[in-house]
Design a protein that fits this description.
This protein is an alpha/beta fold and about 450 residues long. It contains 15 helices and 14 strands. About 35% of the residues lie in helices and about 15% in strands. β5 (about 175-180), α8 and β6 (about 195-200) form a beta-alpha-beta unit. It is globular and about 75 Å long. It comes from Tolypothrix bouteillei VB521301.
Amino acid sequence: MGNKIQLIDRLRLGLAVSVAKSVTFVVRSLRLGAASVLPGSIARRIEPRLLQLLSKQVKNGVILIAGTNGKTTTSLLLRTILERKGYRVAHNSTGANLENGLMTAMLESTNIVGELDVDYAILEVDENIIPKVLAPIQPRIVLCLNLFRDQLDRYGEVDVISKRWTKVISTLPRETVVIPNADDPTLSLLGQQLPQKVLFFGLNEPENYLEEIPHAVDSIFCPSCGHSLNYKGVYLSHLGDFLCPKCGFQRSQPKLNSNEWSQILVGLYNKYNTLAAATAAIELGVDEATIRDTINNFQAAFGRAEELEINGKRVRILLSKNPVGTNETIRVVTQSSDKTTLLVLNDRIPDGTDVSWIWDVDTEKLVERGGTLVVSGDRVYDMALRLRYSEKTPESHFKLIVEEDLRQAIATALENTPDNETLHILPTYSAMLEVREVLTGRKIL
């Protein structure tokens, strides 16, 4: 790792970095944004091999984290573990996970001439650009979290993404370590077929099986032969303990026993994130005592089970951007005793413009438990309609409040939240950013 680059490359890289840092300074000084993408975009025009040249300079290697859900939480946890051991880490912490965002994150840690002095780079990567970035990055570790339906207007179904992943990951050098989710059939098969070193993570907790396979399940067919899989049980969507009765393909064995690992964040989905980060950290040589202590003191990434106190009320923000993720956040809500929930549905580019996925969400469980449901966002009436169709009887004991204005919706939800309860907010991605801006700015009432 940390290879030197040629003089001509260094000169061009230095120019690209200087321009990028100037752009960052101007954008932030004028408060035009976070400058998490534009600097990389401009620098890339000057030096098209920017990502490759920067990746070569990372001393101990790049850790690439990909998947539909959980990238930000897993990345932040792994980064925190490594920093507690004294390592310097570059990380696209803003969540800008396309090519320009990756470059901008690396540029943040360079000096003015393009020298990158970090031990590790942790890059959370959008699942659709894996084929573009693996070759220039040449990661030391590839962490594959899961594959669910997400933004169908951009990506299509799960099998489209999985075929791309399988093709490109198999071409990486033998010394690359791949860490797939054992409970995801597609990723489990991927790991079983790779020539590289493979370490699996997954759950061993039958007591947490769902009572039935969810409506929003994505892949219950064998990725090897196409036959229906038999499940001993599922944890969420198609993740679980499976076996193909036709070809014999079955779940891979995780490296860690999940029962021996605690978690501080709510939701079973965060147990997967915890195990993924722990497996990678152990592979990098971090002692278990440091890993466990970091997990037990970990603070959630923004919008991912993040907890705030607003006007004396507790608020928990649970990003909900696709069927599986939203079903899991609904599970968190319904397992609590709290009865006020705010759902915010947007259809902007970061969210995906196709919101038909809300009809695959088990909103019936929210309606059945009663309480107050406040809805807002660009597609507020789509969400309101979905909730109305979730009523099994005309006598459903829930109160629905439709509020187009987000600021007023938040104020209304807070007013309806008792002092001893928590307001759960379930927003899509762009909505989450807006909600946090309102809440952290204390501009509600």
